[in-house]
Amino acid sequence: MSWASELPPELLCRPVGLVVLTGLDTTYNAVHKAVWDAFCNNRRPDRVPLHFRALELDHVYPKAKPKRTSYEWYIPKGILKTGWMKKHQNEVPAVVVIFFDLDWDDPMWKERQMECSTRVEIVRNSLQGRGTKIAVVLLQKSAPLPPGEDQGAAERASSFCSACDISAKSLYVLPQTDHLLGFTIRLENAFYELAQSYHHMEARKVKSHKDFLNRTTHQLLFVRHQFKTAFFNELKQDTHTAIKHYKQAYGHILEQRMHDTNMLEIKTIAGFVNYKICRLSFQHNVPLDAIAQFRKHIDFFKNRVGIPELAFEHSAWMSRQFQLFGDLFDEAIKLGLTAIQTQHPGFYYQQAANHAIFRKQLCHGLCVDQEKQPNAAILEGLEHLDFYGQRSWRQGHQSIEPPDPQKEKEGIIALQALERKVDHCWIIIPLLSSAVAQFRKYKSPRMKRYLMVQMGEEYFHAKDFSKALMLLNKVTWDYRMEQWWPLLTSILETSLKCAYLTARVQEYVANCMELICKNSQCSLDTKTRIQMNLLQVLSHEGPSSEPGLDQKCMEQAIKAWSEFKAKPHVFTIEMQGLIPFIECKARFVGETVPADGEVHLEVCFRVTCPLPVRFSKLRIQLSNPRYQQNCELTDVRGTNAASASREESDSDDLHLEPGKPRLYQFSFLPVKEDVGGQIDISSVTLEMGMESGCCAVLRWMGAGGESLIGPAPVVGPSKKLPAGQTFDWALFKVNPIIRVTPRKALLQLSVDHQSPCLINEFYTMTVTATNTENTSIHNAKLSLGLQTDQEGYDATTHICSSSPEFDGTVQGEPVKLDLGTVKKGDKVTKQFFVKCLQSGNRSLSVKVEYTVDVKQGQHAVSCQCVKEEVVTLPAVAPFEVSLLLQSLKFEALEAVHAEEPFLLMTDIRCTSPWPVDIKTSSVTLSEYIKTASDVFDSQVEGVQLNKTECASECLWLVAASCIQPSVAMGTYTIHWRRQGEDTPYVSTSFPLPTVNIEHIPISVHLQLPAFGRVKTLLPLTYVIRNRTAYVQELEINMESTDNFMFSGNKQTRFRVLPAEEYRLLYNFFPLVAGQVALPRLHVNMLRYPGTMDDLIYSMLPSHIFIRPVGKSLQMPT
Amino acid sequence: MSNMAVCVAVIAKENYPLFIKTTPTDNELQFYYTVHTSLDVVEEKISSVGKNANDLRELYLGLLYPTEDYKVYGYVTNTKVKFVVVVESSNTSLRDNEIRTMFKRLHGAYVDMLSNPFYNPGENIVSRKFENVVMGMMKQD
């Protein structure tokens, strides 16, 4: 049937002008061969569109028909002759080029010129009546001179032209130089111009016929002439004019008288012209024009079927039209056109496929087997018709009625017979596959899937069942996911047929399972039938066939199924990959289970198929395979159903009835290695059938429950349970994980301690563990340590047991003590010492781990138990120490004077809630500070402090003269412990303040007695010492006062040698009693005038106590 | 006169059918496929609007795609429930405006149906009243 809808290759290709090269001896002449190669080989796309042929000089071209002078009596026999396009592309040249070896200075010039003109004449004769251009190319050995310089050549050229009767423009010279390709390109450009002018003339010639035509008899010629004009223009590469004429041709086609006898011809030519218009529109980058033209074309012709008996021809033609347009569209996209989701080649391929499918259906309907052998001879010459689209038995006939009804009938029957031989599936499938590729590209996954379903069905019709099955399997998943049950059911029905016909047990069983579920749209009868088949297969029998199958295929299938019976089959079906007839949910009862408790596991099933089902084995796989034997259930009823009574409530019966969910329970003890971890349900499997025969293993990963279509809608608990049902399916919550916790420890743990803990002390914690188990415990281990989340404290918390020791390295790790075996009711007491180096709250965990043998039924189970107590321990400082620097006058000092004694006052204030024993205190001084006294005796030795009580110490210190302006003085340490404890004393150190040391060049010291008496001599000596290495000149001035009379220098000036002292002696005579201010001594150093006065004043005592005169017992004399 | 619509479908947010009604035909499945494949275009149209949150999407999506024999129109509610109406290509009496009105009526009927407290969203639509409205759209004029 290909002949009616196929487009000839000369229509599909781009027409280019034909140029014939003659006179080239490509076999024996190397130069000619090179010239030919330059023209023909490796033509790049940028070269002019021409088609070259090398022909003999005396080649016979198609004869030109004598020109018609009048169309008056001419009746056309058809629209377009089949040979015409081919003739003008390949046989009738636009240009004939005669190559001739001749140099301008050829000695035999005259003879050679004669020879050439003869050749031109031969060619011209063979092209009699045609407008073909003739050109001569002289192949010359010598390079040409620039134009105008070679006078002889010009003369000879003109004589040559006149001898050959060609115009000067048609004579070319091709020198045999290195630049052959360049010359060739120039030559071919010249030929191209000649060819274009030839095609132009031809087109005009055809056009000129128009005047002779009349509308009544020459309708066909209108089309033909426009088509030819367009085609010549296309040859001329004038596509814009070409499309104009094609459109006119198309318009004329639509005006034709159409009847059944000529419909095929008209459609064929319309298809041609439409193809050309669309192709050129895409080429001109006006795709919308192309689409519009195509729509118009299809809309016009889609209902013009033609001869009803040959309706499949119409479908074939339609299919072909769509396919061609799809190809053109796709081609344009490859060249840069952009398509969109709703307008792309896929739609056209899809439509082409639809028409092809329709054609197949028509073929099945129309082409029924005839008893009579069709007359094959009537179709002879089908491939070589005179006109496109005509019937082989009445070519050239243009009347409305077929000339010979009998022959017509025979012809139709013969065509139908021919159609029957066509394998339509292999036409449809590639079309669908093209469409699939396009829809995939334009983001239409559902359309793509639909086409794949169609492809699968087509493979099914083509009896390639395994391929059909594979294709359908690819898409069912998506239909399942989107819950389009009617579509899924229809696809599954086809795959079931395929699976049956190929005897693929696993696919067959899986398809059955899905088709009998509640979502399947099959009728109840069908479901019942399918389930019966399923049960049959699982009892290792061949199933009965699916309805509506081909007899021959069925026989093969029965054979294949009998092979199936020969050996056992065991296969696994993943239930979460489909929508099965059985649902499964599994759970652990409870979130956690103690190590010595039983794990309860429940599984429930529900079937939605029409008939009850019996399974053979139920298995639940847990994360730990050691429980396997506890989680298996084998149906024993099925095997000896006769003996078992129906009434007995049972757990080993895997018989499930539709609509009645069943619950199965398992329990087991957790094993030791799972304690502290968890047990997962990794999968649930249900076996159907016998392992020795055919066994389907239905597997749910995890605990089942959620199927592809998501969780079931929540149903309120108010629903009443149907009678005989012990649990509510909807409320059964899947729980695939249970945590196994350690057994609860029966051990009393008490921690005795006196909080808060004081920083640095050895804090005693007494841990007492009492075994309250029924039996003795083993491997008991007691540990005390920081809780794991107490990071940051491990460097400041020292833990030790047995004896309080600290060697400076902090042991922050938990301390473990082995308690061994503790008898029932026994008590173990252990002491721990904790030393906290910083304040803050610490959480300490006290833990006892042990094993105990527990009786669980008949078994004794060894259990690990842990008892833990957490103690929060606040650490506080035992005391606050404030350190003060004072002068000897008990005045606060900001800076000390070098080599001047000063005081350090320590105030120890107890902040501990517990009384504290201070053993002693000590001071560690830096090298620049010394005690002014010889030995340091602690003044707080043996002092006891209660909360908020204070103790003070006073240290007499002196600073050495040094260069640093400020020095750290050292540390002050207290050795102490909590009162009433026998733990070792601990020491807590406090850093002494940093002091600034000032250097005073002189020191002034006043030597005076402890007190004076009124009116009694009071001698005073001011000692002024020069501390510098230089002689210092001083000026002093003693203030006068009312309290004293004194003798000595009131004002003087003197020098003090380095490191020497100068004494100023005064005799004071106190006048008043009491605490009396001394007169001020002003010292002025001439080197540092005005700076010393205040400094000196602070060095000197300001007052003196003056006693009054005692009443003498003796009367004054 | 020809039918108004040949197929009316309500599709859930998750793209499974809630309701499909077709004129009695042997090839009901074909309509199912037509509706199902039209979801490709619906999804594309919804997602292309979603990029700009500011512009309010019109519920009526217009002609989804033409086939040789049918025209498929789409409408998406704000809750992403889709309505698809298929009319015959030969039916020239139905213009864009008529289709819009049809969808408005369908939407109204859907809202009425949804207001029924005994209806759980996501379940297949079995309401007789809703069906009558749909039947009205498919009835011969």
UniProtKB/TrEMBL annotation, chain A:
GO terms for cellular component: Golgi apparatus. GO terms for biological process: vesicle-mediated transport. Keywords: ER-Golgi transport, Golgi apparatus, Transport. InterPro entries: TPC11, TRAPPC11_C. Residues 638-658 are annotated as: Disordered. It comes from the Eukaryota. Its main location: Golgi. Residues 262-516 form the Trafficking protein particle complex subunit domain. Pfam families: Foie-gras_1, Gryzun-like. Residues 645-658 have a biased composition (Basic and acidic residues). Belongs to the TRAPPC11 family. Involved in endoplasmic reticulum to Golgi apparatus trafficking at a very early stage. This is Trafficking protein particle complex subunit 11. It comes from Littorina saxatilis.
TrEMBL record, chain B:
Keywords: ER-Golgi transport, Transport. Gene3D superfamilies: 3.30.450.70. One of its GO terms (cellular component) is perinuclear region of cytoplasm. It is found in: Cytoplasm, Perinuclear region. The keyword Cell membrane does not apply. Its main location: cytoplasm. GO terms for biological process: endoplasmic reticulum to Golgi vesicle-mediated transport. It holds the Pfam family Sedlin_N. Belongs to the TRAPP small subunits family. Sedlin subfamily. This is Trafficking protein particle complex subunit 2-like protein. It comes from Littorina saxatilis.
